[in-house]
């Protein structure tokens, strides 16, 4: 869980799973909206490290070895502010694709 406070007084708790499946990396987001990958099996993913990227972002490393996302403060704010809608959309896409939040055995 990443807990983050912003200067406007907003605070968000972002799960590792949400951060992983919504990674801003090209590997996940693709280069167009049609290329976005829906990733299942991340319910238990964990954060192994967080590194600052200048004053504008952080890099998050996950225990499934994903480490290519650069999370800007604006993107983290958006995830926090819209996380209910993002979760709903993610769950709908998992169902549509026959995927699960749980890892495959």
Automatic annotation (TrEMBL):
Keywords: Iron, Metal-binding. One of its GO terms (molecular function) is metal ion binding. Residues 2-77 form the Gamma-butyrobetaine hydroxylase-like N-terminal domain. Pfam families: GBBH-like_N. The keyword Iron applies. PANTHER family: OS02G0197800 PROTEIN (PTHR35303). This is Gamma-butyrobetaine hydroxylase-like N-terminal domain-containing protein. It comes from invertebrate metagenome. The lineage of its organism: unclassified sequences, metagenomes, organismal metagenomes.
């Amino acid at each position: 869980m990443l807990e983050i406070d912003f200067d406007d007084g907003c605070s968000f708790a972002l799960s590792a799973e949400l951060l992983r499946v919504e990674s801003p990396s090209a590997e996940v987001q693709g280069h167009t909206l049609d290329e976005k990958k829906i990733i299942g099996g991340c319910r238990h993913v964990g954060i192994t490290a967080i590194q600052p990227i200048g004053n504008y972002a952080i890099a998050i490393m996950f225990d499934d070895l994903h480490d290519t996302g650069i999370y800007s403060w604006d993107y983290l704010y958006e995830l926090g502010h819209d996380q209910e809608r993002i979760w709903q959309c993610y769950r709908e896409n998992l169902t549509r694709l026959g995927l699960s939040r749980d890892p495959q055995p």
